[in-house]
Every structure is written in structure tokens, then in C-alpha cells.
Amino acid sequence: MTKQTFIKGALILLTAGVINRILAFIPRIALPRIIGAEGVGLYQLGYPFLIVLLTFLTGGIPLAVAKWIAEAESKGDQARVKQIFRTAMALTVVLSSLLTVIFLLLIPWITRHLMTDSRVHQTLLVMSPLLIIIGISSVYRGYFQGKQNMVPTAISQTVETIIRIIFALLFASWLLPLGIAWAAAGAMIGVVAGEIAGFTVLLWQYVREKRRQPADRPPSSGTDSLNPSGSSSRPVKPEPVLRRLISLSVPVTASRMIGSFSYLLESILTARALAAAGIATGIATAQYGALQGMIIPILLLPTALTYSLAVSLVPSLSEAAARGDRSTIHKRLHQSMRLALVSGAPFIVVMALFAEPICRILYNHAEIAPMLKWMAPIGLFIYLQAPLQAALQALDKPSTALMNTFIGAVVKLLLIVKLASDPDLGIYGALIAININIVLVTVLHWISVMRFIGFRMHMLDFVKVGAAMVIMGAVSLWMMNRQALPALWQNMSLACLIGLVIYMFLMVRLRIIDRHDIARIPLVGKWFQ
Q1: pLDDT digit string, tens, across residues 252-271
Q2: 297-319 residue pLDDT tens
Q3: Dist. CA 423–CA 273, nearest whole Å
């Protein structure tokens, strides 16, 4: 088993994340062409219920496993690592089995009483096996992340994405003759197939590691590495392990449950508010599908980086906090925030300037472009939010993240009810509410981190990146307007490429990034070492 540094671990997940995001856009582009925006809407309406159950199941346990195993690894206590893993796995299997049964029993009631479109029933049925599969996989991922070995997670994510793409498109096409509802369920079958493949990869990596692992050795110190008092060297019974695992998991789970319930209520309230605005059920489903299944995935493309940073940040900050190493905490957090800012900024420029050609090229639905223009500037807050939330969790401040998320969720839901029911706004009312929620939660997280550890970002960095964005946008727009090539996608690609080169040149000249940062980038980095 190989332990990676913080940056190396983040870059491994980044590489896999970029590959997965690119691959994931194949069904995002193809699926609306097969089942239409209405079919995508049915597919998306089922997801919030799955997310709530998965959050309850996996919202805190994998993070607690990663954090706790990282602490045990730092003290060489392999016996405790094994105990943590086995306890977490047993707890997850029991919870996932119970939740699957409850979910199957509640599907008819959900379809009749909560959803405005009963055709979501098939999608809900098909997704039920995901609870057990993803639950078990999440424990394996937490185990490997705690050991700061990001390779198994990266490989499993890539395999899962590839299998999901193939089977989602195949089953959606095969089941389309049975109707839009079954076509949407067919796409969900692809998700199940992909998760099975990803789980298989994780299991194979775990078995392979155990075969190469030496016999358990006692902790390097004479104290119990996980006993808060540090005074006992007696074998720890399973009950205390389970109790602390739950105590570590519950605050994080509660925080994420607020976000998940917010997502669920958002889908329900949006559909009902659009109905109140006089929009027909089929049209409302199509509009919701366009927002959640087409626009937001574009906006979330750069989160391949912020996710990888957040995953690597938790064990890294946990180790630094355990040592009382404040300088490392500041260094790691500053690296994460700077990388999130620099990598997300050019995406914002492209989405804001070229929303219409993007929607036309990807989906052949240029009419949804205004949604992307409205959301593009908010992308910056999305990209900065993940490292900030990961920092709060790693620093044992999950209750603060919980309160920040709760405040944002309440504001968002109240605004959806008020704005989306306005016939003059419709789906754009929901979009405004989502934007306000993103900004509010990110600002609250930032204030909290500053208060707890005195962390400050250099405001000059934001000024420099902002200036580079303006110059990049001007160059890209000028190049696009020249129409030098025959096809729309060719002109946009050329404009984006030239703009990105200018942007990277400015980042280096303005000393936001240096050759050492570029040297960490896979493939091209070796030329700058």
C-alpha cells in the first residue's frame, strides 16, 4: 500500500475526476437526445430520494473512517485500523439493508402523495439496490483515503463511470419503446451497473492490499492511540469503537442531511410551485430536467478538482491538527483555495460568454442557455465551498458546517416557494433561490474558518485572477466573433483554447502559479521540473 502526499493524492483524484467528468458528459449529451428533457426530468426527480437515503447511510461514516484511520496510521496501530474498518462495515451493511426495505415499502406512497409526476415510480424501483452497493463501497473508499492511498478510489470511479455510460445509454434505448418512464428507469439501471463495477474494483484492491500487508503490529506509543485520555493500553472492546464511530459520524451526517433534505424538498417544492404558476406537469418536469440534468452538470465540471482537494484535505488536516501544526493547516488550506480559484475561473468565463453555443452544441437546446448565464458567476462560490467545508470537518467543527448549511437551506426553500410560483419567473425563480443559497453557505463557511484558525486569503490574488478573467474573456470573444473556422464547435473550441493560453500565461506572469505548481500537473509537469 502506497501513502501519497497531500498534493499527489489530490492530483491522482483530480486526474480521475477530470476523466470521469469528461466521460460523464457522454450520457449528459446523448441522454436528452434519446429520452428528451422530459425523460431527463423523470430521471432527475428520482435522485433526491436516493441522495437523502445515501446521505443518512454514507454522509458521515466514510469521513469518520478516513479521519480515524489516518490518526491510527500516524501512530502505527494496525490492529485498530482493522477494528475501525470492520465495525464501520458491519454498521453500514445493517443500515443499508434496513433502508432498502423501508424505501421499497414507501415507493408507492412517495409516487402518489409527494411527486407531481407519477411516472417516476419505475425509476425509484430500479434505484433501490444502490443503497447497499454504494454504502459498502463508501466504507472501502474511507479506508483507502484514511491511509492516504487515493489510487483505488480513482480507479473505481473511472471504471464506474465507463460502465454507467455504456449501460445507461443501452438500457434507455432498449426500454424507450415501453415509454418515457421506462426509458428513464433504463438510464438508472446503468447507474446500478456502474456502482457494481466500482465496488468490484474496490474489493479487488482491498483483497490485494491485505495479501501484501505484514502481520499486525502494536502501536508505536505505549498508549491507546484512540483513547482520548491516552492512559489505557488494554484491548478496546467493540462497543467503544462503535460508539465513537457514531459520535464522529452523526454531526457530519446531520450537516449533509440538511443539504440532502434541502435537495429533496427543492425538487418537490419546485414542481409544486411551477404547478401553482400554471405550468403543465410535463413542461414543469422538462424544465426541472433541463436545470438539474443539463445546466448544473456543466456548472459542476470544475468540481472534479474541488472534490479531489476536499477528499485529500480531510486526512491531511486531521494529521496536522493532531500534531498541533498550525502552519501546515494554513498551508494546505491556502493551496486548496488557490487551486480551486485558479482552476474554476476560466470555466466561469467560458460559461458566461458562450452559454448559447454550449447548450446548442451539447444538447441541441439553445433555449436553456439563459439558465447557464444566470448561474455561471455563482460557480466561483461552488468551487471554493468544498475545501472550506472539508476544513471545518477535519478541524472537528462539523456542527458549524451543519448550522451554515441549515441557514442556507431554509433561505433557499422559502425563496423557491415565493419566486418559482410567480408566473413571470417560473423555473428562474428556483434558479435565483439556488444561487442565493450557494453564495450564502460559502460566505458563512469562509467566516467560520477565519474565526476558528485565523485563515486569510490574499485579496490581491482575487484581483489578479479577476483581471486575468477579463482579459481572457475579451480575447476569447474577439476570436469567436471572427468566425475563422466553418463549424460552431470549432470556433468555440479555438476561442476557448486561445483564451485559456492567455489566462495561464497571465497566471504565471502575475505569480499566482509558478513552475512548481505546473510541475505537479500529470503529463505536462515533467517539462517544468
Answers
A1: 777 678 778 888 888 889 98
A2: 889 887 766 666 666 666 677 67
A3: 10
